[in-house]
Amino acid sequence: MKEIKLLIIHCSATRANRPFSTEALIATGRQRFGQPSYHYYVRQSGEVVQLLPEHVRGAHAKGYNSISIGICYEGGLDAQGHPADTRTEAQKAALLTLLQALKERYPSARIIGHRELPHVAKACPCFDASSAYAALQPRHR
Ligand SMILES: [Zn+2]
Fold first, then answer.
1. Which of 27, 46, 83, 117 could disulfide-link to 126, CB 3.0 to 4.6 Å?
2. What's the whole-number mean pLDDT along residues 9-37?
3. How many domains does the chain have?
4. Residue 124 is part of a domain; what is its CATH number?
5. How many whole angstroms from 100 Cα to the centroid of ligand 1?
6. In whole angstroms, what separates CA 16 from the centre of its chain?
7. Global confidence as pTM
8. Which residues surround ligand 1, an ion (CB under 5 A)?
9. What separation in Å is there between the alpha carbon of 117 and the centre of ligand 1?
């Protein structure tokens, strides 16, 4: 495992008014990549589910999987299916706690949204993760 340089935030790209179970997320990853895509899944309830050990390579950001941890929150689309920041207060709190814990383990890692990577033509994770977590970003870069 290489050094973890990025903590990459994703959304499940599912409608926030329709629950998307952990089992369904794992099944989607297995179908597309032969394994769960993300390391962590943050449910609308604020529950955090670990899908992969951190030392196992994820399958969530082409070209960056070996140097990143993938974090997916449930939702990202509004009831009409349009990209939207649908994070609940419980999800925001859970994401913050999770990212704080990850920063302890990977202090030099930057937190970014999937769409901030080059050549990503998606809205994922439907909010500006870099600035939302500015206070947690590494100071010396
Ligand atoms: Zn994504």
1. 83
2. 97
3. 1
4. 3.40.80.10
5. 20
6. 16
7. 0.96
8. 10, 114, 124
9. 10
